[in-house]
């Protein structure tokens, strides 16, 4: 029988990006250095006992991750990048042509039925994230901090809570704010079990 291992996993969403409001999916938007410093200082005061740091390769996450541990100790996980929003990815809302707003509004109402032009489908996004989560928990041996994106955290929660990943409410009603922590307890052994300890707790300034 495989021995039981209990690990804490903290999912940290990156800070607010600079520039005009946009769907910054896989566009490599940046977070202001002073914001990254502030997040680092707050986490240091919390003294979370993580032993490893895993990060999305996008700089809004990776820059923060390298501030939280030695650069050469950050494990980069490409499958935990944000969803690719196709033609709308990284385009400021104020620059979206009026005739294309209807496409965006339909996507928010039902992202499965109305995918964005050129975008990753929600099904592909969920499959990418959930497969990565399964691999991650299968090898998990220690407390871990994952620096990633709001959409990724929502898809992980959908998997561990057995929620319908197609439900638009995961994006419109579940608040995973910038620089917030979601805490999971992962028990691995003959059977794996995940407990959600807290969701989207905003880091105090």
Automatic annotation (TrEMBL):
Gene3D superfamilies: Phosphoglycerate mutase-like (3.40.50.1240). One of its GO terms (cellular component) is cytoplasm. GO terms for molecular function: phosphatase activity. It comes from the Bacteria. It is an enzyme of class 3 (hydrolase). Transmembrane segments: none annotated. Pfam families: His_Phos_1. Keywords: Hydrolase. This is Putative phosphoserine phosphatase 2. It comes from Vibrio aerogenes CECT 7868. The gene is pspB_1.
């Amino acid at each position: 029988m495989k021995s039981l291992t209990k690990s804490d996993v903290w999912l940290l969403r990156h800070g607010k990006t600079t520039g005009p409001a946009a769907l910054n999916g896989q566009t490599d938007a940046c977070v202001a250095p002073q914001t990254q410093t502030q997040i680092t200082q707050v986490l240091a005061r919390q003294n979370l006992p993580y032993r490893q740091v895993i990060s999305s390769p996008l700089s809004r996450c990776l820059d923060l991750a390298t501030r939280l541990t030695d650069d050469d100790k950050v494990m980069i996980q490409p499958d935990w990048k944000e969803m690719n929003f196709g033609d709308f990815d990284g385009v400021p809302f104020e620059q979206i042509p009026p005739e294309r707003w209807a496409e965006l509004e339909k996507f928010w109402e039902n992202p499965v039925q109305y995918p964005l032009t050129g975008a990753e489908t929600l099904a592909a996004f969920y499959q990418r994230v959930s497969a990565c989560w399964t691999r991650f928990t299968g090898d998990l041996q220690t407390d871990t901090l994952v620096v990633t994106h709001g959409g990724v955290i929502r898809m992980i929660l959908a998997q561990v809570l057995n929620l319908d990943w197609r439900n638009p409410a995961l994006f419109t009603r579940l608040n995973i704010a910038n620089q917030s922590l979601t805490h999971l307890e992962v028990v691995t052994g003959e059977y794996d079990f995940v407990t959600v300890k807290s969701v989207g707790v905003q880091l105090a300034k």
